[in-house]
User: Fold these one by one.
Assistant:
Number 1:
Amino acid sequence: MSELDTVSAFVEGAPPGELADVVADIKALTLSSPDIISSLAPAFEKYNEEQFVTVKLPGSSQPVIISSHNSLGNGRYFDVESSSSFSFDHATQKASAVQSYVLEGSQADLVKSTLKSLKPYVQEHFANAAYGVYPIESDSKIAVVIVGNKYSPNNFWNGRWRSLYIFDPSSGTLEGSVKVDVHYYEDGNVRLLTNRPSSASIPSGTGAGIIKEISVSEKKYQEELNRGFVSLSEGAFKALRRQLPVTRQKIEWDRVTSYRLGQDIGGGSSRR
């Protein structure tokens, strides 16, 4: 594997909200190759599109999504809700050159109705999220994208929820997946990566029907995650530590200030 392949893998595997830290580390590790960052454009693009990175357009407070599903090519993307297209710099993650964009095509009405039902769902269930609905595959299907980010670097953790659903109007099928990525790095390095696929039929073929199914599916997955976290806490994590000290006796906390280390806790006589 070449040096470029190695550092590209670092970029593509960066945890949520930590790409800048990864790039800084790459610069520190490749002092002998100062031009390598400029060669990472494909890796930055892949990371941003796969992670559904969000960006705020100039003059707007609403984040929009970067993905392959709303790409116009040549570094430009579109957002249906704001009726705009824009250029995106994958290295700096900045948007510019905003222009008006009018969605047209056979799926335009379905895209807009789905977007209308999606907005209140996201606002109710996500604290900090962006969403989008886009026509894909030559206007034969639509993609529904949701991304929720929560960063807490001061507490040494960051997380991201990504939902992607593809609806085929011709068959009425909805294929989707939810990916959760949480990184905890206080005095260690623990990362949770999940990928839950789903499949359903939407007989009505309406935007409201699509979002209703998404709501049911994601609620079920959230409950599964909650049960999994409880199981980890009460099972695997709890098994990593002793239930009692090596003395096999509980510590009497009201006496802890009077303990003489070695004699009272260890049972032996302490040296003077």
Note: The CA atoms of residues 228 and 234 lie 10 Å apart.
Number 2:
Amino acid sequence: MSEAKFTKAAEIIQNLPKDGPVKPTQEDQLFFYSHFKQATVGDVNTTRPGMLDFVGKAKWDAWKKLEGTSKEDARAAYVSRLLELLKGVDDAETKKYLEELEATA
């Protein structure tokens, strides 16, 4: 998986309109967060958030589960999941995102 394709995928996810046709679930969001962190940082390098930081703990736990996964594998999984999500929606804007991502080397 190329760095350029991963970067394009991350850009698409960050720019998805909140009221648009593509609506990632919380599970999808955790998947994208954890795989992005693993692909860009590597294994978890911080302490687990405190007991009242529920969102922070969920994100940290999702990232921690990927410990040992290579950055390349994390990038590939990230792009693959986005492609699945985009292919599940039949809409002009989504097709544009899909074409942009597939055209990236």
Note: Residues 71-87 form the longest helix (17 residues).
Number 3:
Amino acid sequence: MSIKNVTIIGAGLMGAGIAQSIAAAPKLIARGVSVTLVDVGADRLANGRKIISASLGRVAKKKFDGDKTAADAFVADTVARIGFSEDAGAAAKDADLVIEAIVENLDAKQKLFRDLDSRAPKTAIFASNTSSLPISEIAKATLSRRDRFAGLHFFNPVPQMKLVEIVRTQELSDPVFASLKQLVEGMDKVGVECKDTPGFIVNRLLVPYMLEAVRLVERGDASKEDVDIAMKLGAGYPMGPFELADYVGLDTTQFITEGWYKTGKGLQGKELVEPPQSLTKLVSEGKFGRKNGEGFYNYKK
């Protein structure tokens, strides 16, 4: 099963990054793979184009070492390989693969896939970029596509991050999995296989680690600054857990952990994923981390 036409729904950081990574991949260019980025309004699409152009500009600056003409041509050529559309149904009608990268909300994702199920080809593969919601629950919105419904969890920033978690439900067929892995490898990324369990691989390990760091500080065992220093110098991590939580977004971290604590398979009610008080307090105060200038640390200074 060859994937030639990819439609991405959602022109935010993740969707734009996935589109850029497909459009800029030499192996996929050689295979004639096309990509279309979709969102609900011209302003959102314009923002997606802006994200892509800025990211490509940084790549081009290094790639062409000050040759502005070559750098500008690289950016323009890559953006030109991306289609932009406000009509999800029209963009999906010839798609071999539809990747959803919209808001992390189960109802919204199910509604999108329910709408697209009757408009995309019956052979099309559906995939969600969710980082925390069960793929099997999202797939319930489709009628007869369970064997062609998977998770494709990219990491931010997508153009730089090599990893993609390819999430298998019990129904996913082997040929579909193989096609997704081939696409990921064509993007010059590494795909790892994982089952449809809470957090998949990375977040299942990473989120409890961040939460325990918060609880450690809440107990008065150490300061957040010393915890971050200890994990960077003692464990070789590029960021400490508080720096990482601020980078991911405290609202995102709380959303994930609350979902797991309430309904997560094998995690429900467990202290391991219980939202810490200080995290809940910061989110209630609108302090989400780097994205709005303050979280565990203040970035407005």
Note: The radius of gyration is 20 Å.
